[in-house]
């Protein structure tokens, strides 16, 4: 600020001194105002000349040395030259960084697309050419949904507008040769779309599912035969106490194996259905809650206090058989692992985010925190001995998780030792209907 004042007052001083000198000399020669006006015109012409030189220098757009000039115009030229040189260096650094960014994104194994606020494509790397068939010279600026015509992707984008939490979507590529896992990440007013090739993982999952289903089918027949012969032996040897206990033990293990096989087949069926679109069927949740309470009372046989509460949300979109199986599994688990005299609550309500929640709460023994994260793994048991005593197969919660995921929901488990457990199934608002 002090430097600016210096330039201002210095210019005012010299122009004033020059004009006063011309005015005094004019009085001597008899033409004071003529010389004063002539001095002003010369001063204005000099400024116009310097402005012209400045425009000519700037129009070159090159980092040439500035023109020589006196007074504050010389300072202006020098300041502009320093600013121009500084900007040129910054521009060169930005170009280098941009080239590095492009090289690094081109080296990424995933397809990457930058989308604007209206889902128009602003930039994409070369992987998008092979994954989505995009073209560099034609598709920039085009809406993504116009180029990738997938109703599933469109629904995914619409869901992301309402809920910006990070979710993934698996869809086939336009040529159906690859299976892509897509994630949308918002930043500022734009979005980053990342697509990863999960074809090999999907093939492994399919192979595992088919293997489990085939083995389960193959086991079902011999188990049926064994069970039948054991029933025959029990009938013929019921008067032989030496064999009765052994036969009953074999029957228990046979029935347990049959339950495991049935659960494996059910799990394989649910996994196969996960890739299918849900029907537009709606389940009467109030009626389902009442039915679950009746089942719980029969299973508990008076050993527990059972309560059921349903909200005003009457309908839930989904498969009635799958959801009934999942909810029944949670209720039966609560009864199985809650000591006599305990309390079990079955609730259906809307949470503060507008989601529909089915919740089963008990005041049983509870589960240690390090076990909670693994409860939905197949055959994972907190206590192997207790699970065998209660008839558990270790597949129930895995089945529940797959069913809830198929219905675009989420299974949340909260538990503390000595305080009981809460199993909550959360469903998005779009899956609900009040009437």
What is the residue-averaged pLDDT?
80
Distance between the termini: 71 Å
Using only C-alpha atoms, the radius of gyration works out to 39 Å
The top-level CATH class of the largest domain is Alpha Beta
Strand content: 15-25%
Q: What structural category characterises the helix and strand content?
A: alpha+beta
Share in helix: 55-70%
Number of E-state strands: 13
Report strand order across the widest sheet: 2-1-5-4-3
- CATH architecture term of the largest domain: 2-Layer Sandwich
Order of SSEs: HHHEEHHHHEEEHHEHEEHEEHHHEEE
Question: Count of helices?
Answer: 14
Q: What is the count of structural domains?
A: 4
How would you sum up the major sheet? 5 strands, antiparallel
- Shape verdict: elongated
Relevant CATH superfamily of the largest domain:
Histidine kinase-like ATPase, C-terminal domain
Poorly predicted spans: none
CATH topology of the largest domain: Heat Shock Protein 90
Folded structure, characterized:
By secondary structure, the chain is α+β, with helices and mostly antiparallel strands. It folds into 4 domains: 101 residues, no CATH class; 90 residues, 2-Layer Sandwich (Beta-Lactamase); 73 residues, Signal transduction histidine kinase, dimerisation/phosphotransfer (DHp) domain (Helix Hairpins, Orthogonal Bundle), CATH 1.10.287; 152 residues, Histidine kinase-like ATPase, C-terminal domain (Heat Shock Protein 90, 2-Layer Sandwich), CATH 3.30.565.10. 56% of the residues lie in helices and 17% in strands. It contains 14 helices and 13 strands. The strands form 3 sheets. Strands 2-1-5-4-3 form a 5-stranded antiparallel beta sheet, with helices on both faces. Helix 8 packs antiparallel against helix 9. The longest helix is centred in the middle third of the chain and has 38 residues. It is elongated, with a radius of gyration of 39 Å. The two termini are 71 Å apart. The relative contact order is 0.06. The mean pLDDT is 80.
């Amino acid at each position: 600020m002090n430097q600016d004042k210096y330039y201002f007052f210095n210019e005012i001083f010299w122009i004033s001194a020059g004009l006063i000198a011309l005015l005094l000399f004019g009085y001597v020669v008899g033409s004071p105002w003529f010389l004063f006006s002539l001095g002003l015109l010369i001063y204005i012409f000099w400024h116009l000349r310097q402005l012209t030189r400045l425009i000519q220098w700037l129009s070159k757009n090159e980092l040439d040395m500035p023109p020589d000039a006196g007074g504050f115009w010389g300072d202006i030229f020098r300041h502009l030259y320093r600013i121009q040189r500084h900007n040129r260096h910054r521009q060169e650094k930005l170009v280098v960084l941009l080239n590095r960014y492009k090289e690094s994104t081109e080296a990424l194994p995933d397809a990457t697309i930058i989308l604007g606020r209206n889902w128009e494509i602003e930039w994409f790397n070369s992987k998008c050419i092979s994954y989505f068939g995009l073209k560099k010279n034609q598709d920039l600026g085009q809406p993504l949904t116009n180029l990738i015509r997938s109703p599933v992707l469109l629904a995914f984008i619409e869901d992301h507008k309402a809920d910006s939490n990070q979710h993934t979507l698996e869809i086939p590529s336009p040529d159906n040769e690859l299976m892509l896992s897509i994630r949308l990440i918002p930043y500022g007013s734009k979005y980053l779309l990342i697509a990863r090739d999960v074809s090999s993982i999907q093939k492994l999952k399919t192979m595992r599912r088919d293997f489990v289903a085939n083995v389960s089918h193959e086991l079902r027949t011999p188990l049926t035969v064994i069970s039948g012969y054991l029933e025959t032996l029990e009938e013929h040897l019921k008067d032989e106490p030496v064999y009765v206990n052994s036969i009953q033990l074999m029957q228990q293990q046979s029935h347990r194996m049959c339950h495991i096989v049935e659960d494996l087949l059910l799990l394989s069926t649910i996994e196969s259905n996960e890739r299918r679109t849900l029907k537009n069927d709606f389940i009467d949740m109030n009626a389902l809650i009442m039915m679950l309470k009746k089942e719980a009372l029969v299973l508990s046989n008076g050993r527990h206090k059972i309560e059921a509460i349903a909200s005003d949300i009457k309908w839930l979109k989904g498969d009635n058989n799958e959801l009934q199986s999942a909810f029944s599994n949670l209720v039966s688990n609560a009864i199985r692992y809650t000591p006599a005299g305990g309390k079990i609550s079955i609730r259906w309500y809307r949470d503060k985010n507008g989601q529909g929640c089915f919740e089963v709460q008990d005041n049983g023994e509870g589960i240690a925190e390090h076990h909670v994260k693994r409860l939905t793994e197949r055959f994972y048991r907190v206590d192997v001995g207790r699970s065998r005593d209660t008839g558990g197969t270790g597949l129930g919660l895995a089945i529940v998780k797959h069913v809830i995921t198929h219905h675009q929901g989420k299974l949340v488990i909260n538990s503390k030792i000595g305080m009981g457990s809460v199993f909550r199934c959360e469903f998005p608002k779009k899956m609900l209907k009040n009437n």
